[in-house]
Specification:
762 residues, alpha+beta, Aldehyde Oxidoreductase, domain 4
Length: 762
């Protein structure tokens, strides 16, 4: 593919940033509907309780109040669906549990919605909510998996005894157990992957408008088509053609804006009932109990070894907290993570026993990486632990067991097929730019200064860029510009720039001549939204193919007017010209030709991935700890990644820096804490620590790409990679500090100053 001024591989600044940094972005909360009413959600103060309304009439009669919805008014609506059911290990299906739009008489987590109050102003809606009298009867709360699995624990859902939502097996249990029985040595490690609250900049909101039978929702999301279909088919049981979902600019999503939340059907029903638009906007405190959470796994990982330290088999027991209800893709998250547990290593056989556990807590679903960060953390912490256990250098152990390039394509013990990758090579390069060999001198200097110092790395691989096709639509406008329509959804990644570059690669237009439309179900017929790093590997491949088809059509149209064969024509700078001459037609002139029918000026193409893509790489982290306070500091951080092909180096670096910050945040500071009654002790930024700029190192980042052979563009996806590699690298570095100082061989996340200080003194 030849280099183009604005095409693939060019380090172009983002075209959308001009409006963002000048305050011209248009977000869901910027949209105003004429005559709109305001809504407020009344939420449970208990994690587990039965309840009944004592007096609604008084609240309904208060000034400005237009409507109060409870279960009685919403019982006819369908439940929020779980769209990723799993089968149990014996082949039986999961037992279904109800996830109603509003509960009838029982709440199962703190902050669960029980009433939806609509009034002329938000203040009036809040006043009415506070006036609603509810008789609460609190019951024993089971806020953690330990509590939910305890002997004699009450059932969170009456039809699920034991609180186990599903219990399934991945891999070959029989073969794995046979290898373990004969292994020279078995090493095991117990880990906690801490629950975290995904905190995007823009909190959720929705404006619902209903005209006749037609519904329009304006909201921030990661895909308008999926929300439209869920609302129409599963909840309101209407034709999706009668529902329009509009998503304007979005201030962050990280997976958690993909899902159907209760507020969307509630606002819709209120707008239907009142004949007026209804707006609901979450505040940040509400966000902590009204949006899905991430991670929250308890894992035992075991490796069978031969006498030389080669990995023979891997055995994992994984319990994943599902929260009080099964959110949209919740069971799929630990499942997909389990398929990646062997990481970059040549492990012939293995299996995972995976259980989903109900607790009295906010539902858990996809958060950046969605299972793959948990998998990478498990295997990379286990490998470091094995090296310490058997007395082998951790780099030597990795090199012995990493999958060799000559084995590609490589089928893992969990059925994944890696198409390409040079794992040892990018590990060595990351160590080189991090000056791994110079660490002993820096360690000596740190000791002299009274500091603890350690270095660690994480070699990761993830699965993304798979699934169904994502059609891309490209149209040449009469003025010679181009319009792209695509069903993915930017949440801040820079899609307007990325898709425009793919079009410019074939039409040679400057980016300001290419308009990218997404987020409106009326404008784009189909769309799978954004998640799993699919936008460029799948959606981008469709857009690129559509642009290529359009370029061919433009040459065909120009050939007759220029009296030349299409083989003699080339596209350059928004024109079709006869190669080697100055005879040319501009795109706007071509658009006016008699043969320029809509079918010639608008193209559609799609790419259906035959397999997932497998981005991989190595993060190296060097840390220093003050032993008097437990305060840690990252002093050096290097990343070398294999993303197949780089579309835009600037966009890529931004994705990796942001992702790594989220992984570092989970490893060192983010901590979701509930007490025994299920009350949230970290319900705001006063108590829930977020990573800040001064927590971040200066990242050194480069790529060592091996093109993907199963993707039309050769790309592997990069949206989640930074998060996946960061936590294991940071925790391996931190444990290296603690092991050198006190022989401490493991500490769970988040390893904040208090946890480190306590570990050093225990």
């Amino acid at each position: 593919m030849r280099p183009m001024k604005f095409g693939m591989g060019q380090a172009l600044t983002r075209v959308e940033d001009q409006r963002f940094i000048t305050g011209q972005g248009q977000y869901a909360t910027d949209y105003r509907a004429k005559g709109e009413l305001r809504a407020y959600v009344l939420r449970s103060p208990h994690a587990s309780a039965t309840f009944s309304f004592k007096n609604l009439a008084h609240a309904r009669a208060m000034p400005g109040v237009a409507l109060i919805l409870t279960h009685a008014e919403t019982a006819h609506l369908g439940d929020l669906p779980c769209q990723a059911p799993l089968k149990n290990g014996d082949g039986s299906p999961m037992v279904p549990t109800a996830y109603p739009v509003l509960p009838k008489d029982r709440v199962r987590h703190l902050g669960e919605a029980v009433a939806f109050v609509v009034a002329q102003t938000l203040e009036q809606a809040r006043d009415a909510a506070e006036a609603i009298e509810i008789v609460w009867k609190p019951e024993k709360a089971l806020p953690t998996m330990v509590a939910a699995l305890a002997s004699g624990a009450p059932a969170i859902h009456a039809n699920v005894p034991g609180n186990i939502a599903f219990d399934t097996i991945l891999g070959d249990r029989e073969k794995t157990e046979a290898v373990f029985a004969k292994a020279h040595r078995v090493v095991s490690l117990d880990l906690v992957n801490n629950r975290i609250v995904p905190n995007y900049m823009e909190a959720r909101s929705v404006v619902a408008e209903v005209k006749g039978e037609n519904i329009t929702l304006t909201l921030g999301s990661q895909g308008s088509h999926g929300l439209r279909d869920t609302l129409a088919k599963a909840i309101f049981k209407v034709d999706p053609a009668k529902v329009r979902v509009v998503t304007p600019d979005v201030g962050g999503g990280f997976g958690t804006k993909s899902f159907m939340y209760r507020e969307y059907p509630l606002a819709t029903l209120a707008a239907q009932t009142l004949g007026k638009p209804v707006r609901w906007v979450s505040d940040r405190s509400e966000h902590f109990v009204a949006c899905t959470h991430g991670r929250d796994n308890r894992t035992r990982a075991e490796m069978a070894l031969d006498e030389k330290g080669r990995f023979l088999a891997m055995r994992v027991t994984l319990d994943a907290d599902m929260g009080a209800y099964l959110s949209q893709y919740a069971p799929f998250i630990p499942w997909i993570g389990s398929t990646m547990l062997t990481g970059c290593y040549d492990i012939p056989v293995g299996y995972t026993r995976l259980r989903g556990i109900y607790t009295h807590s906010v539902p858990v679903d996809a958060y950046r990486g969605a299972g793959r960060p948990e998998a990478a953390y498990t295997v990379e912490r286990l490998v470091d632990f094995i090296a310490d256990e058997i007395g082998m250098d951790r780099i030597k152990l990795r090199k012995m067991n990493l999958i060799k390039p000559k084995k590609m394509p490589y089928k893992t013990a969990t059925g994944r097929v890696y198409d390409s990758g040079e794992f040892a090579a990018h590990m060595e390069r990351a160590m080189e730019i991090a000056d791994w060999k110079g660490f002993p001198a820096r360690l000596k200097a740190a000791k002299k200064a009274g500091k603890l110092r350690g270095i660690g790395l994480g070699v990761y691989i993830e699965a993304c860029g798979g699934g169904s096709a994502e059609p891309g639509y490209v149209t040449l406008e009469k003025d010679g510009s181009a319009t792209v329509r695509i069903g993915t959804q930017s949440n801040g990644q820079g899609h307007e720039t990325a898709y425009a570059q793919l079009v410019s690669q074939h039409l040679d237009l400057p980016l300001d001549k290419i308009r990218v439309l997404q987020g409106d179900t009326r404008e784009t017929p189909t769309g799978s939204g954004t998640g799993g790093s699919r936008s460029i590997p799948v959606g981008g491949a469709g857009v690129a193919k559509a642009a290529e088809l359009l370029a061919t059509n433009l040459k065909t149209l120009a050939a007759e007017a220029l009296e030349a064969g299409t083989g003699d024509l080339e596209i350059a700078e928004g024109r079709v010209r006869i190669a080697g001459t100055d005879r040319a037609l501009t795109f706007s002139e071509i658009a006016m030709l008699p043969g320029a029918k809509p079918a010639m000026l608008s193209t559609k193409a799609e790419f259906k991935p035959p397999e997932a893509t497998y981005p991989n790489g190595t993060h190296v982290c060097e840390m220093e700890i003050d032993p008097e306070t437990g305060e840690s500091r990252i002093v050096n951080y290097a990343i070398v990644d294999d993303f197949g092909v780089t579309l835009n180096p600037l966009l890529l670096a931004g994705q990796i820096h942001g992702g790594a910050a989220q992984g570092i945040g989970q490893a060192l500071v983010e901590r979701y804490v509930m007490d025994e009654s299920g009350q949230l002790l970290t319900a705001s930024f006063l108590d829930y620590a977020m990573p800040r700029a001064d927590d971040m190192p200066d990242f050194t980042f480069e790529t060592r790409n091996v093109p993907c052979v199963t993707n039309a563009l050769g790309v592997k996806g990069a949206g989640e990679a930074g998060t996946i590699g960061a936590a294991p690298a940071v925790m391996n570095a931190l444990v290296d500090c603690l092991r050198r100082a006190k022989g401490i061989r493991h500490i769970d996340m988040p390893a904040n100053a208090q946890a480190i200080w306590q570990a050093l003194r225990s």
